[in-house]
Amino acid sequence: MGKLAFIIVDGMGDLPIPVLNKKTPLEYAYKPNVSMLLKNAAYAFPSVLGKLAPQSDAGVLADLGYDPIKFSTGRGWFECMGLGMNPGEGDLSVRVNFGQVNGGNLVSVRTEMSKEELFTLEKEINSKVRLPVKFEFKSGESYRGGLILRAEKERFSAYVSNNEPGYTAKFYKNGKKLSFAVPAKNTRILPVKAIRKEGKRTAELLNLFIRKAVEVMITSEVYKTRKKNGLPLPNYLFLRDAAVSDPKLQDINDKYGKKWAAVVGMPLEKGIALATGMKLVNTGELPVLSEDLSSKADGAINALRSFDCVYLHIKQTDSASHLGKYAEKYAVIEAIDRLIIGKLAKELDVSGGDTLVLTCDHGTSSQLKRHINSNIPVLIINKKFGQNKEFGENSCKKHHLQKIRKATDIMPFIMKL
Ligand SMILES: [Zn+2]
Fold this sequence. Notes:
- The chain has 417 residues and is an alpha/beta fold.
- It has two domains: 4-72 and 248-415, Alkaline Phosphatase, subunit A; 78-243, no CATH class.
- 35% of the residues lie in helices and 19% in strands.
- It has a seven-stranded mixed sheet, with helices on both faces.
- Bound molecules: zinc ion.
């Protein structure tokens, strides 16, 4: 096997959309650079987690060949790791969203803010909130953040619910934990609840943190200025996927006997890359799409010169889907074709043994504005193949490789090429 560029386009899979001639955004997008590679194409259409709609952590882990049900201790661990917070064994790591409520009802779980605004709120929360345990709060991209409660005197438990209504935690018999996207049933805001008795104290601490942090947020200048300017307000925090232990993933370099690098911008994906022992290169997330994609393509090309495999993650497709912007979604896919596939195709020697894989972590419906349990489209370009069909959900379903039934089958299959 030669070099591998493994591209995960977040939430790229979708459902047919009537105004796109019943095509999905991936099928509708004009992809001349992908088309040029199709003479060496094979397709797969695996399931990620069966009937359940996965989050990105489960999808990315599965795509990289780690069964999320065997390993995941909760997404919060990866989020905090990716934010550089160094979660320790026993610490409680949680993913946080800045959101907005009105009279106890949900307005939005995503109050998008600038880096400066996020950083100001982060600083104020860390300096003004007092809890009976040591904690650290860190902001991430746009509306995201991470919280760690440090285990000094207390033991924490991951058996607590998410107060973000779109995601339900599921606990497995082996002690592992995952969250799934669910249609929000009502808009009433609920506190974090203990799922088992042992989670009672942790739930209390998290609710206390939310209450105190919200007090700080709504008296902040950031809040007042946004209110004056009629902008969405950060007046609530949504917590999810609390984790208390290291998922202990096998080092990917040992697992496959290849040197891996990651070109990723989001904290979750950084966390997964770090937890699997990949070398992080080019970790920025630039606000202008074309600049972001170009810089990621350059990062991947550079990394391929000294690493065997590069995992490249692109976020913007999922963000567009959550906002219901299907036209933006196919435009992002077209930009990926132009700015990433076009460049990588020149750099990789697919007729000489290099491999390019284009897939996603889960489907996100841009009509339903949430993750779905659909199978995921996978395109594998390697000299061993030659199916030459347009790349999309339908063709992947029709022409899928028998050996790839689950997302966790993708990587073992590729590593044998
Ligand atoms: Zn995702």
